[in-house]
Amino acid sequence: MQIQKNVSLASFSTMRLGGKAAFLVEISSEEELLEAIKYSKEYKLPTHVIGSGSNSVFSAKGYNGLVIVNAVDGIEETVGEDGLLLSVGAGVNWDRLVEYTVEKGYSDIALLSLIPGTTGAAPVQNIGAYGQQVSDSVISVRAYDSKSGDFVTLSKDECMFSYRHSRFNTVDKSRFIITSVKMRFSRRSESAPFYADVATYFEVHNINQESVSPANLREAVSTVRVIKLPDPSTVANCGSFFKNPVVSADVFNQLQANFPELKSHQTDDGNLKLYGAQLIDLCGLKDFHDSSTGMATWKNQALVLINESAKSTDDLISFKEKVVQAVEEKFGITLIQEPEFIELV
Asked: Which of 101, 295, 301, 307, CA to CA, is 20 to 30 A from 242?
């Protein structure tokens, strides 16, 4: 384990913005995590843990503490009568895990293909797409509990999952450092109805939607995402910058009376999820390039903010506020930022 000093955080965020971390360390095991925590306590340093940086936005002022890059690797497999059980290191690339399960013949997370980030970060946000979410497959999470000073195993129920939320990004934010995730996979196929983009792909390619294979699902979603979303390795972005708003049926009916073109998708609790990208598009901000900040919205998906020539995180914040204000004024809905904003000076 090697502690680095005065490290540019722009290299640890896919938005490629941010000041410097006073200290930074990459850990690859629970033992190294304990060493890093011991170091932070010895020198009285605040700590912040990241994975791939695809969901992190660092302040222009940097982080005056210890940034821990969680790179715990490994996939341990157990096959049982009720499916495939995996224990996955928190640092494992999420799409690598999706590919692994699809190759094993399981469809449980196939619709989550090409979502950037690490497996350890997935339960924090309860990532989801096209009707699937990671919490559907989670059995338990192993994590370091900063409150007790020991490692704990939290069951699915104890994780307190909801739409794009968990206890890890709400009531117990920053308390736990996830080191591995135990998951169960059992579904061999999926059937209609599918989200429009995915259904269209199956129609075009003459794929029977009554029993779609894991490979079909992954191929469909990967094709759609490549078309709609920029690759963070070539275009600086954090994926969807805003969460899709969820409203009651009454609120949706009021909105649709004024905006008949509004689309929605019913959630499990009876509310309606709006498409944030459509709201931004209806404000005339899709493929909008802002010369004053160097930021833009992506040409094929307005939820994605991209860094074209921004000089600092302050430019990103200014641009974000422009988008939020426009949607508020037109629809009375406040878009919520999805990536975490990290600041400590």
From this structure: 101
